[in-house]
Amino acid sequence: MSAVLGAISGVASLTLITLIHLALTRSAESPGDQGWLPLAFAGACFFVLFTQVTSNVVLVRLSQATAARLRYELCSKIIVAPLPTLESVGQYRLLATLNNDVGSITAALASFPSVCANAMVLVCGLIYLATLSLPLAAGTILMAALGVAMFLGGLRIADKSLRQAREDQDEVVKQLRAMVHGIKELKGNTTRCLDFVYEVLLPADSRMRHSLIRGQSIQGFSHSWGRLFLFIGIGLLLFVWPRLATVSTATLTGYTLTILYLTYPLDGILGWLPAYHSASISINKIEALGLMIDQPERQSSAALPNRFRSIHLQDITYQHQSHGELNFELGPIDLQLKAGEVTFIAGGNGSGKTTLAKVLTGLYLPATGSITWDGREISDRNRNDFRQLFSTVFVEGHLFDRLLGIELQQDRLQHWTKLLGIEDKVDLETGRLHQHKLSRGQHKRLALLVAALDDRPIFVFDEWAAEQDPGFKQTFYHEIVPELKRCGKTVLAITHDDRFFDLADQVVKLVDGKLLETPSENTPANQDIRQLSLHTETSRRAA
Ligand SMILES: Nc1ncnc2c1ncn2[C@@H]1O[C@H](COP(=O)(O)OP(=O)(O)OP(=O)(O)O)[C@@H](O)[C@H]1O
Question: Which Pfam families match (predicted)?
Fold first, then answer.
């Protein structure tokens, strides 16, 4: 509709020019007698305005709807894609595509009506030329076609550089994100900051700049070269045609002026082609990303599982790959979680605790082995349902600024904000979380509040207490964990706080991805760990 309206507005513009021409002729022949021309002129003006405005409004709606749909489709794919796939694609690529690629498609669409109007003016102008002289019109079309072909050839040559520039842009976005996230580290160390700017950021930016300069220079050159063909046509018309045939000065002038006039719409169309070209690069990029992350997982049924008896991990292994190479292997792991029990996972840095928690919560798919939930094996069919069993607080967890998917219960909200000492960080009426200027410890307390209000059967805490002050550590281990246990919740906590190990029903230790021991409640190994931690706690207090 927008294209048709744009084309109609092109015809209406030509009508305006014809009316102006008529008015000038008539005023020369019979001054003061314009007849119906003023009325027709006003009507044509209104028609041009109407078609242009309508065409633009239709197109703005279309381009914005297209951008919104692209963003929505990408977001949906991202949400249902497996976590390891998203981790390997990288946040910076996702953001570059969501921001820049969708933007360049919208920009190309936005100037489409003027392209249609220009195309219509061009067609009408060529028809008019044909009425003056058919062979000349054919010659003009030939020259214009040659010009456009030159331009398209140039675009093809520029294509490689422009695609490379788009790839380089991913790296620039990655480094800009690194700069924003690492601003504290850069401010505090001038050498590091200079190194980052001159060795990392500027080289990445300069690679993108050079690819862009190369691509856009070729585009600019081919644009000018393509345009030149029209002037070559005019030159032939002025200097060669009069030698070959007798031609009146009036026809020659009319012809030349029309061709000159047509260079503007032709320019408009040629000028739009680079935008179209970069939109097509963006479409490829979106498709490539879509393909990379297009492994949708089955989504959950609406009902949340509110109970479970046990979860059993049997011979579970998981592998972290990096650039096709094995980075880390977890397992084989055998572990059982029982309803209402508290399990602590201990182990050195990089021993695989978080990886195990992600496998256990269904975020990572095990490479081998099986997870059973009350006797049912977890598969693609029920994995998303299984995930709904967990309230999690991971180390790198994100806090949304409001309570999402949680029905606000004032008494529970007040109870937990008081227990966590964050009454001033939550709007008790709306449940909005005040995230400004939160300390790391407060950030984690808010995350725990969200998990507690989520109220799933199993709570997973990844080194939650690590950033809490000693007093609040005690609150966590002696009040929060026992309260959750009293409410029948299962708690799985990754922790280095061995002095609290005696509070757990089960302590498992990971070393290089392997379970050192998987003791049940009363096994000697578990008692040893408890005695060890009791001893540590007694010595600490005595000291
Ligand atoms: N997304 C990933 N891609 C590749 N390797 C990873 C990824 N995540 C973790 N690893 C690697 O897996 C190993 C285990 O990491 P994990 O985070 O599970 O350890 P952790 O025991 O929780 O450590 P910490 O106590 O330091 O938090 C590490 O060597 C880490 O480099």
Answer: ABC_membrane (PF00664), ABC_tran (PF00005)
